[in-house]
Design the sequence.
């Protein structure tokens, strides 16, 4: 009987440990972890507040750098029409300067890329090969940046006598970026 009482007391102590003490210790551990995590966040916030002026100065410097880079890479034209007018004037002068004839100028669909829009123009050209190379070098060095995306030559197997050395007959695709503007435009064709 006495062993039974001791055994029941031992079981009661184990039950108290299992259902009262262990959950209490788990709760204390989770509370301590939460307090430690919040203290770390508080320290981080204090450091940010202490460095607020330095952070603001760095943000302004990065904004200035972004604007400087954007001036050299992105056309300032806010809409597709003004960009096309500006570029056709530029391209017409350059083609004439290098002795190239533009048989056709085709504006391809614009592609939205975040706050920028990529605009492509396809030029069907003929003229001297060295004039084409000079034209492409001039275009690649132009600010804001334009790049030659694709060059296709047109070769006729039916009329080989039309092909001469030093002559170019084909298509050149140029790509440039411009600001998307305030209209929130997407892919479009005028």
Sequence:
């Amino acid at each position: 009987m006495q062993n039974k009482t001791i055994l029941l007391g031992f079981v009661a102590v184990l039950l108290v440990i299992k259902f009262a003490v262990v959950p209490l210790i788990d709760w204390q551990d989770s509370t301590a972890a939460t307090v430690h995590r919040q203290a770390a966040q508080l320290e981080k916030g204090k450091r940010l507040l202490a460095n607020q002026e330095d952070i603001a100065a760095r943000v302004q410097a990065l904004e200035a750098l972004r604007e400087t880079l954007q001036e050299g890479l992105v056309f300032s034209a806010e809409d597709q029409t003004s960009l096309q007018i500006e570029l056709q004037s530029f391209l017409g002068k350059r083609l004439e300067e290098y002795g190239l004839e533009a048989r056709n100028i085709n504006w391809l669909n614009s592609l939205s890329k975040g706050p920028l829009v990529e605009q492509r123009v396809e030029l069907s050209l003929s003229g001297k090969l060295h004039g084409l190379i000079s034209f492409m070098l001039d275009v690649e060095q132009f600010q804001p940046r334009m790049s030659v995306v694709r060059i296709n030559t047109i070769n006729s197997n039916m009329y080989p006598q039309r092909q001469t050395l030093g002559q170019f007959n084909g298509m050149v695709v140029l790509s440039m970026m411009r600001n998307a503007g305030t209209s929130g435009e997407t892919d479009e064709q005028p």
About this structure: The chain has a mean pLDDT of 80. The chain has four helices and six strands. The domain at 75-179 is CATH 3.30.70.60 (Alpha-Beta Plaits).
